[in-house]
Design goal:
Heat Shock Protein 90, six-stranded antiparallel beta sheet, elongated
Length: 735
């Protein structure tokens, strides 16, 4: 259980009133009496101070006061009522006066409130009015018309001087969108009030209680006795009809010259949409039954409002279905989401009232209409992604949260962003331009509090204060958000469909590739036997009959022997190439310097390339990969460099690394024949030889190099110029 001392701040003023626990104020209004009974002990444990005057008893008598002492001959009825945990109001007589008994239950406590019975509208008249009310509200064409009818009906029913329908915006500022008032009063229609006028804990209380009455703003309240229970906790008055209001709120009402109020919560889809606020300029008590009537009326209004709002959203969403269908067709054409949303006659702007839109997908941005620059959009996406929870972000005053938004506020003061996939930055955005307008406030909103001496007090002036609103767009409507989310689902489905199609093709390709590898391996292996026969018989003819042949015969025999040698080399390369796919890679850290040395020794440079200078950079970085496969990679790249530079006067090869990248990039550079950069994409293809036949080779060596690097999920590329040498680079994965 919480520490009692932390439940209520030691000092409440306008610096912390939004944290004021108004349900623990420990005061009830003077027109009511409160009794709290411990249900387990069957004992009175708390009362409002005015009870002692009502019963002519002393404070120390509290635990001895019985139901008979309070209710006399009707005590049995009350006892039966509370034993059954009945919450229906009943009427009793106490000290020769008629009272309404209002009961509720919380944990092990029974709360009983007494309110005087005040003759007001008769029940049958109220019932007839309610029937008319429901009919009138159902016939109202617009939400505005429904608000006007509700305000007029409540004023007629209760007689308050002013009845207002007060709507909250997304920042909890309020606007009076309808009113019914005495003709002598100034109209407040269209006036705005800052969120601080109704702090968050008061809004939460409205959700719980529904209707709140302040019968006399200036009357003294009655304190709860004892203030704290045996555990040191104040009494929770959350559900008490007669709970007193915060002193700060009372001061606010006094500054408005208001004598009494009644407020009812308008709840739509479980959220506080607004309030019906009734003001009277003198004390005014509305009895419990009439408050229940107002509560019922407000619930009818709220239900109608929810239905109309839902129907409006559904109507607008349904109107965009055809548009979304067209967008899906466009995006599905060639699987081009970017073009489908931004480059056709029907664009993503068609489903909202936005003037600009953008899609960020696969690290590419496409825009339509008036939008910020691409770099600004990227920064905005990063900010939304890193600072927001959920998959949807909306704002009609972006600069209030995002300072960089000032640079493009004219075209994008409002932003709607919907992320396509959870955990990814891919998203679609819509932008609304700045809409400058004059807002009328009930008093200066920048001076919602004023300093008076050494304390802060609610503002004293509520005269109309006009303020130019800038850096703000039209708000995003429910249907716009719903349509954007529906489009996100469509895009997700397209991406999933595209993925499935690509996956099927990839699976087929893998199967074909596997079959091709097996075929290549089998064919290459089966060719060995006849080649050995051809080569063997050619060698026998050369050894036994060479001298007896004429020049043509000698050349023919030598050609057969050379061709079989080349064929064997080709088979070796094909087997090596197809074998890479079957090879189980074994990753590890190895010494690249040492491996390069082994490769150079394996290539036996002194036999064929003894005139080539090879320079190896000292202290090459260690690498991470399959050492055996990287040996094959280096053999092919260094062998390639040796082959295509040995015809130079001073052939030179340099082996080194670029350490400014992570992981390091290794390279083999030669001063040989080079190649045309226009063909650098083809150089790693199977059998793609970009040189004359005077250079030996199968055309598979670089394809093997490419496959080794791909197996490591690394990268390989080449740079070169004709007759100016070539450089081959490769980068292995980081550990």
């Amino acid at each position: 259980m919480s520490d009692p001392s932390t439940l209520y701040p030691k000092k409440i003023d306008l610096t912390n009133c939004d944290k004021e626990p108004i349900h623990l104020l420990g005061q009830v209004q003077s027109h009511a009496y409160l009794f709290v009974i411990d249900a387990l002990k069957k004992q009175l444990v708390r009362v409002s101070e005015n009870v002692f005057n009502l019963l002519s008893r002393k404070r120390e008598d509290i635990h001895t006061i019985s139901l008979e002492d309070i209710f006399g001959s009707t005590a049995g009825t009350i006892n039966t009522h509370i034993e059954g945990k009945n919450t229906q109001a009943i009427e009793v007589e106490v000290k020769e006066k008629r009272y309404v008994v209002i009961t509720h239950y919380k944990e092990d406590l029974i709360y009983i409130e007494l309110e005087p019975v005040v003759a007001q509208a008769e029940a049958h008249i109220v019932q007839r009015q309610l029937s008319d009310i429901i009919t009138d509200l159902s016939q109202a064409i617009t939400v505005s018309g429904m608000c006007d009818k509700t305000a007029n009906l409540i004023k007629e029913l209760t007689g308050y001087d002013r009845v207002m329908v007060y709507k909250f915006d997304q920042n909890w500022n309020g606007t009076i969108i309808s009113e019914s008032r005495d003709v002598a009063l100034e109209s407040w229609l269209g006036m705005h009030y800052p969120a601080t006028d109704i702090p968050q804990q008061a809004r939460k209380a409205f959700l719980t209680q529904g209707v709140r009455l302040i019968a006399d703003v200036k009357s003294k309240t009655a304190a709860v006795y004892p203030e704290l229970n045996e555990q040191g906790f104040p009494l929770d008055l959350t559900h008490c009809e007669s709970r007193a209001s915060s002193p700060i709120h009372i001061e606010y009402l006094e500054n408005m010259k208001v004598g009494a109020t009644l407020t009812a919560a308008i709840i739509s889809n479980g959220n506080l949409w607004g309030l019906i606020a009734c003001h009277h300029y003198s004390p005014k008590f509305i009895n419990y039954y009439q408050r229940q009537t107002i509560k019922f009326l407000t619930q009818v209004f709220s239900t109608q409002l929810t239905l109309r709002s839902s129907n409006e959203v559904l109507t607008r969403i349904n109107a965009t279905v055809a548009t979304r269908t067209k967008l899906v067709e466009q995006m599905s054409d060639g699987w081009d989401v970017h073009s489908g949303l931004t480059e056709k006659t029907t664009s993503m702007l068609s489903i909202t009232e936005a003037t600009g839109g953008a899609i960020f997908l696969e690290n590419k941005i496409s825009t339509v209409g008036e939008t910020p620059a691409s770099d600004d959009i990227l920064d905005l996406v990063d900010w939304i992604y890193n600072s927001q929870m959920g998959d949807t972000y909306t704002s009609h005053n972006l600069t209030k949260e995002y300072d960089k938004g000032k640079a493009f506020a004219k075209m994008a003061s409002g932003v709607l962003c919907v992320f396509i996939a959870k955990g990814e930055k891919d998203c679609i955005l819509w932008f609304k331009p700045e809409l400058k307008q004059v807002i009328s406030w009930g008093g200066n909103p920048e001076k919602a509090v004023v300093e008076e001496g050494k304390r802060l007090t609610p503002r004293k002036s509520f005269e109309k204060w006009n303020q130019e609103q800038v850096l703000t767009s039209l708000p995003w409507k429910d249907y716009e958000i719903a349509s954007a989310q529906a489009l996100r689902t469509s895009i997700s489905n397209i991406i999933i469909s595209r993925y499935q199609e690509v996956k099927e093709l990839n699976d087929k390709l893998k199967e074909a590739y596997k079959e091709l590898e097996s075929f290549s391996y089998s064919v290459s292996h089966d060719l060995r036997s006849p080649l050995r026969g051809i080569d063997g018989f050619a060698q026998i003819i050369k050894e036994d009959y060479f001298e007896s042949l004429d020049d043509y015969g000698k050349n023919a025999i030598q050609t057969i022997i050379d061709s079989t040698s080349k064929m064997n080399t080709l088979i070796d390369d094909i087997l090596a190439f197809s074998g890479i796919g079957k090879y189980q890679i074994a990753m590890g850290v190895f010494d690249m310097q040492e491996l390069v040395g082994e490769v150079l020794q394996f290539l036996q440079l002194d036999k064929k390339y003894n005139n080539t200078t090879i320079e190896v950079e000292g202290d090459l970085p260690k690498a991470y990969g399959d050492r055996g496969m990287i040996f094959q990679l280096l053999s092919n790249l260094i062998g390639n460099a040796l082959k295509y530079s040995h015809t130079e006067e001073n052939p030179t090869i340099y082996i080194g690394a670029r350490r400014d990248e992570s992981p390091a990039v290794f390279f083999i550079k030669d001063n040989g024949i080079g190649f045309n950069e226009a063909h650098k994409e083809k150089i790693f293809g199977v059998f793609n030889r970009l040189v004359k036949d005077e250079f030996e080779g199968s055309g598979i060596g670089l394809a093997i190099a490419q496959r080794v690097v791909d197996k490591h999920k690394g990268t390989i590329w080449a740079e070169g110029k004709v007759d100016q040498g070539a450089t081959f680079y490769f980068q292995l994965p980081i550990r």
